[in-house]
Inverse folding.
């Protein structure tokens, strides 16, 4: 760390930064979610929102970031940044943080974000809250979040503390103790306050072409030599099978342990229903743990967080860890043979019955409706 950098000098830090993750020159959709959320935080603080974009020849992506709300993008081009390496990206990012001193630094909780953020936090001597599902600066907004999401009586709660100013710190909320409670964490004594945020939990803003055109692109001076990087990427090999895109899907038909009496038949029915609705198949962790379906299909706290237009839950009980990943879906349809299953508390439409009887009827009526058009 350079001599003139002091992570405890809180007053020296300004602006909200987002690490912008691109792969092969394509921005990840989580980055746009973070830029959108970062815009809200920057507006609450009255500061600038900046993206940091390492890569090789990636200037063209800066406008896209502007369209989702970035005021400024620091673009760092180098052949050494073409592929992600922990050493190379951490050096460039930490050098920039030391030079410009942002007060908040956000990463997507992707494989890269989960690798890079803790390395940077340790090097910058600051705190990191991993896997956040909600962020706030504004205290009234945070109280409203507690009222709305957890039905807490915030009028009777005190947010004052002798240890720190609750209204000035980033409040980072994440599930704790296996999802049985939510914890809000602050980083009151060090800057930047750093967080990784789960893909899919923050809403993407509407793209603004005017803002895209006016984004400021900065090419900061940085030094990076081959000796700074202890690994060499020889080849990038993509996974052989195509992974399911749950986060980008408009319709998800998920299966749970309720398919156990005929796993193959249950998966086939879910696949057919998903196909009729133009969607993809998701699953509860019980199905993934049983080896009935791949882990990329898992929805929930330790799987993907999704918010499709339609989420169909077939034979899923609705454990809190599953609901954490799908409860913000626009319309939830649940089929369960137990009328007291908790999934019905989250559902907009509930069907009590055996899925092996109900799903063929659903498929049949969708086909009939399509044919009648
Ligand atoms: P069950 O709870 O066994 O429910 C099966 C349901 O199917 C029942 O409600 C039953 O009435 C119904 N059913 C049975 N037969 C039929 C039929 N023929 N027709 C219709 N309905 C039928 N879970 C996740 O899903 N995602 C996660 O990310 C996740 N993360 C976790 C993290 C931690 C730290 C922990 C401790 C747990 C996590 N879990 C997660 C597991 C979670 O607690 C539940 O165990 C799991 O979601 C249960 O899956 P299920 O609903 O498929 O199975």
């Amino acid at each position: 760390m350079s001599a003139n950098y002091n992570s405890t000098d809180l007053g020296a830090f300004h602006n909200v930064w987002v690490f912008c993750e691109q792969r092969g020159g394509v921005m990840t959709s989580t980055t746009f979610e973070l830029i959108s959320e970062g815009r809200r935080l920057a507006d609450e603080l009255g500061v600038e929102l900046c993206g940091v974009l390492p890569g090789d020849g990636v200037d063209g992506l800066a406008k896209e970031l502007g369209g989702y709300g970035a005021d400024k993008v620091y673009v760092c081009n180098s052949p050494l940044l073409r592929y992600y390496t922990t050493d190379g990206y951490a050096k460039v990012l930490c050098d920039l943080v030391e030079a410009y001193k942002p007060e908040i630094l956000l990463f997507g909780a992707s494989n890269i974000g989960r690798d890079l953020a803790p390395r940077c936090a340790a090097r910058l001597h600051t705190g990191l809250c991993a896997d956040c599902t909600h962020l706030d600066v504004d205290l009234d907004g945070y109280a409203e979040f507690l009222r709305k999401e957890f039905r807490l009586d915030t009028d009777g709660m005190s947010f004052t503390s002798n240890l720190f100013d609750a209204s000035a710190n980033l409040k980072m909320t994440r599930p704790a103790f296996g999802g049985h409670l939510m914890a809000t964490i602050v980083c009151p004594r060090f800057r930047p306050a750093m967080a990784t945020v789960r893909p899919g939990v923050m809403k993407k803003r509407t793209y603004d072409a005017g803002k895209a055109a006016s984004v400021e692109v900065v090419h900061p001076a940085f030094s990076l030599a081959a000796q700074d990087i202890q690994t060499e990427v020889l080849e990038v090999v993509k996974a052989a099978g195509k992974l399911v895109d749950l986060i980008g899907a408009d319709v998800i038909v998920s299966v749970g342990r309720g398919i156990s009496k005929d796993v193959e038949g249950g998966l086939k029915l879910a696949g057919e229903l998903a196909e009729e609705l133009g969607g993809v198949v998701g699953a509860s962790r019980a199905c993934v743990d049983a080896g009935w379906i791949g882990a990329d299909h898992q929805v929930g706290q330790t799987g993907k967080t999704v918010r499709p237009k339609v989420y169909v839950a077939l034979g899923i009980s609705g454990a809190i860890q599953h609901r954490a990943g799908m409860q913000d879906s626009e319309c939830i349809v649940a089929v369960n043979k137990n009328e007291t299953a908790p999934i019905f508390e989250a559902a907009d439409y509930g069907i009590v019955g055996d899925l092996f009887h109900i799903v063929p009827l659903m498929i049949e009526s969708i086909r009939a409706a399509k044919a009648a058009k």
The chain has two domains: 10-228, 251-372. The two ends are 67 Å apart (CA to CA).
